[in-house]
């Protein structure tokens, strides 16, 4: 018996959900990051992808979350949530006292979330993150950042 795959779940009415992803291309030693912003009806209201450099997959996922938070703030969204399929990153952001190479990025996300009052980062299944995963793969085909 197979387990059901959790598909993308829409945010609450009036909220924007930003799905983020990072992907390591081992052959090129690069991490790509992407984000897709959708409203409660599932309409894409924005997207972005870029190659981020040579980092660990964990740091890449942390950077993708930070990119999603910054994107929400830059667009002036008043009610938003960033969703990642990296549960370890969500735990690290909620417990930023952890010491690691990624501590600065984690602390930056944590502090920004505290300042934005009410916005958050949550875990979502990889199956609900397929568009962001596609975009992160696309980021390796170009040396430029893409924002839609």
Automatic annotation (TrEMBL):
The lineage of its organism: Eukaryota, Viridiplantae, Streptophyta, Embryophyta, Tracheophyta. GO terms for molecular function: nucleic acid binding; RNA-DNA hybrid ribonuclease activity. This is RNase H type-1 domain-containing protein. Residues 32-137 form the RNase H type-1 domain. Pfam families: RVT_3 (PF13456). PANTHER family: BNAC02G40300D PROTEIN (PTHR47074), REVERSE TRANSCRIPTASE-LIKE PROTEIN (PTHR47074:SF11). Coiled coil: none annotated. It comes from Ficus carica (Common fig). InterPro entries: RNase_H-like_dom_plant (IPR044730), RNase_H-like_EbsB-rel (IPR052929), RNaseH-like_sf (IPR012337), RNaseH_domain (IPR002156), RNaseH_sf (IPR036397).
């Amino acid at each position: 018996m197979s387990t059901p795959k959790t598909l993308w779940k829409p945010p609450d009415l009036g909220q924007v959900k930003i799905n983020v992803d990072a992907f390591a291309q081992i052959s090129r030693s690069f991490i790509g990051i992407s984000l897709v912003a959708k409203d409660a009806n599932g309409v894409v209201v924005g997207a972005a992808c870029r190659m981020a450099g040579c980092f660990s997959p964990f740091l890449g996922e942390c950077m993708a979350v930070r990119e999603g938070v910054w994107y929400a703030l830059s667009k002036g969204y008043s009610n938003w949530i960033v969703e990642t399929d990296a549960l370890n990153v969500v735990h690290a952001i909620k417990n930023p006292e952890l010491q690691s190479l990624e501590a600065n990025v984690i602390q930056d996300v944590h502090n920004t979330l505290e300042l934005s009052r009410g916005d958050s980062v949550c875990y979502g299944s990889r199956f609900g993150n397929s568009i962001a995963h596609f975009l992160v793969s696309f980021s390796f085909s170009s040396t430029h950042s893409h924002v839609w």
